[in-house]
Amino acid sequence: MSVLKLAWSGAIAATVATVLATSAAAQMELRIIAPAAPGGGWDQTARSLQQAMMTEKLVKSAQVINIPGAGGTVGLAQFINNKGDGNSIMVNGFVMVGAILLNKSPVNLSQVTPIARLTEETQVIVVPANSPIKNAKDLVAAVKKDVARVTFAGGSAGGADHIMAGMFVAAAGGDPSKVNYVPFSGGGESLAAIMGGRVTAGISGYGEYEGQIKAGRLRAIGVSAPNRLPGINVPTFKEQGIDLVLTNWRSVVAPPGITPEQKIALDQLMERTVKSKAWQEQLKQKGWVNAYLPANAFATYLQEEIARVGGVLKSLGLVKS
Questions:
Q1: Residue-level pLDDT at 198
Q2: Does residue 18 sit within a domain?
Q3: Which residues, including other chains, have CB under 8 Å from residue 286's CB and lie 6 or more apart?
Q4: What does the alpha-carbon distance between residue 13 and residue 16 come to, in Å, rounded to a whole number?
Q5: Same domain for 75 and 7?
Q6: Residue 158 — left, alpha, or beta (φ > 0 → left; ψ -120 to 50 → alpha)?
Q7: 10-50: pLDDT as tens digits
Q8: What number of other Cβ atoms are within 10 A of residue 236's Cβ?
Q9: CA distance 30 to 9
């Protein structure tokens, strides 16, 4: 057979596979697992997917199921038991990578089928408006002088905020195991600690502190994005000479043991969803940044993140080597 005929037959096969996958998705009765309680980021992501898919008629039905507990690892354990179920996906993200290690979970993300990275949220470090720390280099100087005297406020121990504190201290040339991190269960509590001067700096997603930054009550000294955020006049850490890039991403995975055809159907479904008008409206409404990666690219990215997060948690002394 000629090269031209081979290429043509290959193109036809790929087109047929896409059409079949699209048709299969349209008849799908999809279950979206949110491994967290209602109202949180993963739950919001699951329900936004549900709304977009149903609005665009990409699936026959979509049901969100909440399974909270232990940073998502309770839901993960149950999800993995659905081996071969091509009608289920689970929302997860950066936080689960650390939770698996911190909770010494018997299950991990190597046991699922990566389908897509969806969104990412940039982290920010803030200080009170009256702080003598004016920029990231000032905070670096404070860390170099005495890392233990620099206190960071953020969310739960081992989460994205804690990991970022460790990465900042390491980038500043300090010892991450000596990070003085104060975890808070809610954004209101951490904000009160920052505004009251009880901590040196606060770390969270940019959206958490945006109102206080714009009102001039907090000073943003840097964002963890690789490039400046559109419409936000806050420098990145990289442009200030600090090697720190971190985004709190969210994604979807499928159970283990699904067939290649099931994977193609889910991969195509997510691609059509993220390109839809309904999903774009969800991104705008929620203030989420589109960070879409299809299945194979996301699988590579996930392995890199697992290795990176594990290294940071070890440097913080939160997990053993």
A1: 95
A2: yes
A3: 44, 48
A4: 5
A5: yes
A6: left
A7: 545 445 555 554 555 678 999 999 999 898 889 999 999 99
A8: 19
A9: 32
Pair of tokens at residue 195? 């505004």
Q: 220 and 126: one domain?
A: yes
Closest to 289 measured CA to CA, from 231, 209, 244 = 231
Task: Identify whether residues 13 and 29 lie together within a single domain.
Answer: yes
Euclidean distance between CA atoms 7 and 127, whole angstroms:
59
Residue 129 DSSP SS3: coil
Angle at Cα 142 formed by Cα 141 and Cα 144, nearest 5°? 65
Cβ partners under 8 Å of residue 86, min gap 6:
254, 258, 259, 261, 262, 263, 265, 266
Average pLDDT over residues 259-281: 97
290 Cβ contact list (under 8 Å, min separation 6): 118, 119, 274, 283
- Length of the chain (residues): 321
Assigned token pair, 24: 């299969």
Tell me which residue of 232, 225, 250 sits closest to 302, measured CA to CA.
250
Cβ-count burial 30-56 (b if 16+ within 10 Å, e if not): bbbbbbbeeebbbbbbbbbbbbbbeee
What pLDDT is recorded for position 321? Answer: 66
Q: Give the residue numbers spanning the domain of 134.
A: 121-240
Residue with tokens 């980038």: 171
pLDDT tens per residue, range 167-223 = 999 999 999 999 999 998 766 788 999 999 999 999 998 888 999 999 999 999 999
